[in-house]
Write a structure and sequence with these properties.
Length: 960
């Protein structure tokens, strides 16, 4: 801080760290003009176009595309439209500078200018980003809303309930999300003052859900984001817990009846409660009852009287079973949350924002900003803690200034936020940082590194908050909560003291964090604090792409292979760029690194990579793929960081489809014991109502509630009742046949197929290898087996579904324009047979289309032929189509795997070229990534915290 001669503080201290004196940050970098064109990959439609936009040359195409489409203001094609990243950053930063000057943060104009330059440098170099509402609104004619997270409140009255609907609607309209606790509303087991029975909170959830769905469908390109919380002792808790699971059963029934139940489908709107995340707020009392196997009381809302007693374990199992069935509800641990609450004298924390990272007072909001951790990795692969701390100091100052000029959706939210000034600084790219440092995400070293960085971030934030309080005063609600606030600061400091560092790198960070917490205690005693809370770990979806981050929030790396857009159009597969750095850090020589990277490019994982030690495998474990992290690995990482956060963590614990209800129970129980504030789970393929890309692990519409044993029992029961005696349908002496020559991955062969008089395929003969060779003999035997099966009534589509997508060498490019890429000779043969002998509707059900049909889809949005031809004779007369097909990109000498292979699974569209890392991972591994398709550009989204984000356009499923 600057001081006058008398020693009075007149402004916060601004230190020049990042910018260069006498040089504007823009003048230090090279700028270039780019054309931003965004296409819906499914329809081929251009959804956005702006040419000649200006960006630094080191910004990726993806980052510039997302920022241009999402954050540039003004109508496209007019002079009012922003044309350069400079305009965007200046619009925001100059507003922050003016806010600081107007409210007494800076002693002199020179301090204000230095603040502007430091903030500009950090933003343009992608060291951090504010949350999306800042980029949407700040410096425009719109209300200056800077917050992405809101918590509302509702009381047990119709006026309050209707006001909830209205306030939520305004927040959704502005593109943000909100959460609230419904536990004040009387249960359906209680009486009204008129003598009637109350409706209960679940019935009112129905109206709010319909409102959210209507606002979403009114032109928005993403789902409304909301969180609904109910206390575990509410008498309607079982109804609340099972609500979404019952709706999932309804989705299955309607889907099986032929209705379109995909996310965004025509009929999905008839299903209720789909626009909210649901969470149960559990107490320590309840969790101890679960452990001890005792009863637990459900209490009335009006007077707190006991309504009934339930078996705690039975209720806990119902919660876990519902989460197993449909991923809802999550758990929020009430006593843990409120034990870390800095403002208990004002009121308890009862709810969270939709993604569960912001937990504070009712009718409040939080603005977020996240740092890109990988930017602070030094050349010696250690974390630059001092530089990180200096960046946090600048950023937290800017975040607090924003509250001075911000607008809010309701008067109550504005009053609470201005009185308590909740901030949510956080970070992204933790997974990439740990990998680059040679640390496993699920390892003691990885957790120690994450904990020390989180502790340093929050410690520096509160130290700066105390410093700002010395200049412009503490937050309005501090005086009544001073002792509680200081108690929580001591809890953070004590947790920092318990960190057990594992190596030099985290020891250096921890040393600085320890000093920061000492400054917090000292500064708080002297000045109080400017902010009731400082930090959270948010999903960082869109802003993560703005910063060119490999990983979002606290998440591990999604996969080892990535999809990268190229300047001038096109795209390519790349191996995660932190992998070579990690291998070098681990001691591998350049030639070994090259071989391992080439192996990863082809296989998507490190298992059996040449020369890679097995003890180093854990460094390259990812969220998805062959070596995906175990569920408790996610929980333990959250537990390592939680004691150093004011709020909580937006993250979902991913479980395989085979996970059991008991495993979910254990995750919820361990999360409570380890001190987490909230936990959400997602079991792969548990939800039906979302569109899925093709893959071997795809949700084909099977009922995930039915176990394998049950399915086998049903099948056995049917077999016992039906006697099936097949008879052979022999081919005529003279029959129509066709011979096809083919090449798959350089291997040549011939296929002759013969048909019955009605055009039905009856025989197949394959010629591969030299006569008398083992391969030729095996193919002859295989041909006879398939031919006899066909003649005994095995449908061709059964063979196609079993043998297409079978993967082995030789594989690769073919000389067939209809099947440009093949994963094996079997894959090619049965795709070709499907195209030659199956009618269009059956091929479409298998996701197999001709080149002409794929071209028609790009032009018209429909695969349907003008006139369907199905018989062998008609097919023989039909000319082959020729279309231009994009080449397969090669990476480090290894071909990108199956970028144009059509899908083999039932009811799916063809796999054309992959357009996101999620789609690429599906093609490499053959297993589906269980996430929705983007409503804006049609590509597969990927998980980010407890929501999803699109790599193609930056859209999110609900989190800003």
């Amino acid at each position: 801080m600057t001081e006058t001669v008398s020693g009075a503080r007149t402004g916060v201290k601004i230190e020049r760290v990042f910018s260069t004196e006498g040089v504007h940050p823009y003048d230090e970098i090279t700028w270039e003009r780019r054309d931003v064109v965004q296409t819906n990959w499914k329809t081929g439609e251009t959804v956005f176009e702006q040419r000649g936009v200006e960006y630094p040359d080191f910004w990726s195409v993806n980052a510039s595309t997302i920022v241009t489409t999402k954050y540039f203001r003004g109508a496209v094609g007019t002079e009012a439209r922003e044309q350069s990243l400079k305009e965007l950053i200046d619009r925001v930063v100059t507003t922050y500078r003016k806010g600081g000057e107007d409210h007494g943060y800076f002693a002199t104009e020179a301090d204000a200018e230095l603040f502007e330059h430091e903030l500009t440098w950090l933003l343009v170099h992608q060291y951090f980003s504010f949350n999306s509402p800042v980029w949407f609104n700040v410096g425009t004619q719109s209300p200056q809303q800077v917050s992405a997270c809101f918590i509302l409140s509702v009381d047990d009255s119709m006026d309050s309930i209707l006001n909830w609907y209205k306030e939520e609607g305004f927040i959704f309209k502005g593109g943000s999300g909100a959460g609230l606790n419904l536990s004040r509303i009387r249960s359906s087991k209680e009486l009204l003052s008129s003598g009637g029975t109350a409706s209960g909170p679940v019935s009112f959830m129905r109206g709010a859900d319909a409102s959210a769905g209507t606002i979403k469908s009114g032109g928005a390109t993403r789902r409304a984001a909301k969180m609904v919380v109910l206390d575990v002792d509410h008498p309607d808790i079982v109804e609340f817990v099972e609500t979404k699971a019952r709706e999932e059963d309804k989705i299955r029934a309607l889907r099986d009846a032929g209705f379109d139940m995909d996310l965004g489908g025509a009929d999905i709107t008839s299903v209720q409660y789909q626009n909210a995340n649901n969470s149960v707020r559990v107490s320590d009392e309840f969790m101890r009852a679960v452990e001890e196997g005792t009863d637990f009381a459900l209490r009335g809302r009006k007077h707190g009287e006991e309504i009934e007693r339930v078996d705690a374990r039975e209720l806990f199992t119902k919660i876990s079973k519902a989460a197993w069935e449909c991923a809802d509800p999550g758990l929020q641990y009430d006593d843990t949350i409120n034990d870390w609450h800095t403002n208990p004298e004002t009121g308890r924390i009862t709810a969270s924002n939709p993604c569960s990272e912001y937990m504070s007072l009712d009718n409040s909001s939080c603005n977020l900003a996240s740092l890109n951790l990988l930017k602070f990795l030094k050349d010696d692969d250690t974390f630059d803690a001092e530089l990180f701390a200096k960046a946090v100091t600048v950023i937290i100052t800017a975040m607090d200034i924003s509250i001075c000029f911000a607008d809010f959706p309701t008067e109550a939210i504005g009053d609470t936020t201005r009185d308590y000034r909740q901030l949510g600084i956080g970070y992204a790219n933790l997974g990439a940082l740990l990998m680059a440092m040679g640390l496993g995400y699920d390892s003691d070293g990885g957790r120690s590194m994450a904990a020390t960085i989180t502790s340093l971030m929050t410690g520096v934030s509160y130290a700066r908050s105390a410093e700002i309080a010395g200049v412009v005063g503490p937050y309005a609600g501090y005086a009544r909560n001073a002792e509680a606030h200081k108690r929580v600061m001591r809890k953070h400091q004590a947790a920092n003291d318990t960190i057990r560092t594992m190596h030099v790198a985290d020891a250096q960070v921890h040393k600085l964090a320890t000093k920061a917490w000492a400054d917090v205690i000292k500064g708080g005693e002297k000045h109080g604090f400017r902010n009731a809370q400082a930090s959270v770990l948010a999903p960082t979806g869109t802003i993560g792409f703005m910063m060119d981050c490999d990983t979002t929030g606290i998440e591990p790396d999604f996969s080892l292979v990535k999809f990268k857009k190229l300047v001038g159009g096109g795209s390519m597969q790349i191996v995660n760029q932190t992998i070579p750095r990690a291998l070098t850090k681990l001691g591998y020589q350049p030639e070994q690194v090259e071989a391992i990277v080439a192996y990863i490019a082809e296989n998507g994982h490190v298992i059996d990579a040449p020369g890679l030690k097995t003890e180093h495998y854990e460094v390259f474990d990812t969220a998805m793929g062959a070596r995906s992290l175990k569920p408790m690995g996610h929980v333990r990482m959250m537990a390592a960081c939680q004691p150093f956060l004011s709020g909580a963590i937006s993250k979902t614990v991913n479980l395989p489809e085979s996970a059991t209800i008991e495993e979910i129970e254990d995750i919820y129980l361990q999360s409570w014991k380890l001190g987490l504030k909230a936990t959400a789970v997602y079991r792969d393929n548990c939800k039906v109502g979302q569109p899925m890309s093709s893959g071997k692990g795809e949700n084909k519409g099977t009922d995930s509630n039915v176990s394998k044993q049950d399915a086998e029992a049903v099948e056995t029961k049917v077999v016992e009742k039906i006697v099936y005696a097949p008879t052979r349908k022999r081919l005529p002496k003279s029959r129509v046949s066709r011979t096809t020559s083919f090449t798959v991955g350089g291997a040549e062969g011939y296929m002759t197929s013969g048909a019955h008089d009605d055009g039905e395929l009856g025989e197949v003969f394959l010629k591969l290898g030299k006569q008398g060779s083992t391969l030729a003999g095996v193919m002859d035997a295989f041909s006879i087996a398939v031919s006899i099966g066909l003649q005994y009534g095995v449908p061709l589509e059964t063979y196609v579904s079993k043998f297409s997508n079978l993967r082995f060498e030789p594989a690769g490019l073919t000389d067939d324009p209809d099947v440009r890429m093949s994963q094996s000779i079997m894959d090619y043969i049965f795709r070709r047979l499907a195209l030659d002998y199956l009618p269009f509707d059956k091929r479409a059900a298998l996701g197999i289309y001709s080149a002409e049909e794929r071209q028609r889809y790009l032009e018209t949005g429909s695969y349907d032929p003008v006139e369907e031809t199905g018989s062998a004779a008609e097919l023989l007369e039909a000319p082959s189509s020729e279309v231009e097909v994009s080449p397969v990109v090669e990476v480090r000498g290894a071909p990108a795997p199956s970028l144009e292979t059509p899908a083999a699974e039932a009811g799916q569209e063809p796999k054309k070229q992959a357009h996101t890392s999620a789609e690429l991972l599906e093609q490499i591994t053959g297993h589906a990534v269980d996430s929705p398709l983007c409503m804006t550009c049609g590509t597969k989204m990927r998980p980010a915290g407890s929501c999803y984000v699109c790599e193609g356009c930056g859209s999110t499923s609900g989190c800003s």
